[in-house]
């Protein structure tokens, strides 16, 4: 288990995926994520907020808008998370581009969170290291949560929004 964790730690992905395969190369991300990159019956649930959050977090809105080489396939048509809904995804990065295949809308969001963690800025370029890369992941626990006790301690809305973003980054679902 330590060997696998070490390999994943090299890739800077949190939480550790179930499976990761990586190569010696580097992929240059040439454009932003766009609504047109989504396919499958679950694509209707992707809203502009998910796309803009991704682009803002990764590119700080400083890269010119150009449709990148992304493909996100959402196989299921359910919108809400539940224990019976698969949250798994497979992320592949190779010379053809970046592809995420997810069981559901939630799985696609988790795949995008992992992709956010992989993209690094390197000499005025956005790159993904250790390509070709393949990550297969799904939660091992149905409910992953955090409790904010706002009844005993007042928290401003801005703090709660930051906490929700941090929860999504860590792939918590409740």
Q: Mean of residue pLDDT?
A: 82
Question: What is the overall silhouette?
Answer: globular
- Specify the helix fraction band: 25-40%
Give the terminus-to-terminus CA distance. Answer: 28 Å
- What is the beta-strand fraction? 25-35%
Count of strand segments: 7
Query: Can you count the helices?
Result: 4
Q: Specify the structural class.
A: alpha/beta
Q: Which H/E pattern describes the elements? A: HEEHEEEHEEH
Low-confidence stretches: 1-9
**What Rg, in angstroms, do the CA atoms define?**
16 Å
Sheet with the most strands, sense and barrel status: 7 strands, mixed
Topology:
Blueprint: H1 2-11, E1 19-29, E2 38-39, H2 48-59, E3 70-74, E4 89-94, E5 97-102, H3 105-118, E6 119-122, E7 125-137, H4 157-169
Helix pairs in contact: 2-3
What labels would you give this structure?
single chain; 174 residues; alpha/beta; 4 helices; globular
Could you explain the architecture of this structure?
With 174 residues, the protein is α/β, with parallel strands linked by helices. The protein is 28% helix and 27% strand. It has helices at 2-11, 48-59, 105-118, 157-169, and strands at residues 19-29, 38-39, 70-74, 89-94, 97-102, 119-122, 125-137. Strands 1, 2, 3, 4, 5, 6 and 7 form a seven-stranded mixed β-sheet that branches. A hairpin with a 2-residue loop joins β4 (89-94) and β5. α2 packs parallel to α3 (105-118). The protein is globular and about 50 Å long. The two termini are 28 Å apart. 23% of the residues are buried. The model is unreliable at 1-9 (pLDDT under 50).
């Amino acid at each position: 288990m330590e060997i696998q964790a070490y390999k994943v730690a090299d890739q800077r992905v949190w939480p550790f995926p179930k499976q990761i395969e990586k190569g010696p190369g580097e992929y240059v991300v040439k454009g932003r994520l766009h609504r047109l990159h989504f396919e499958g019956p679950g694509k209707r649930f992707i809203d502009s907020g998910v796309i803009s959050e991704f682009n803002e977090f990764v590119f700080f809105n400083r890269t010119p808008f150009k449709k990148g080489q992304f493909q996100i396939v959402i196989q299921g048509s359910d919108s809400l998370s539940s224990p019976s809904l698969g949250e798994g995804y497979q992320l592949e990065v190779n010379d053809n581009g970046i592809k995420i295949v997810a069981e559901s809308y939630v799985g696609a969001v988790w795949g995008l969170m992992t992709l956010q963690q992989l993209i690094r800025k390197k000499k005025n370029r956005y790159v993904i290291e250790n390509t070709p890369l393949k990550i297969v992941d799904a939660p091992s626990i149905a409910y992953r949560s955090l409790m904010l006790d706002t009844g005993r301690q007042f928290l401003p809305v801005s703090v709660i929004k930051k906490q929700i973003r941090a929860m999504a980054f860590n792939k918590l679902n409740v």
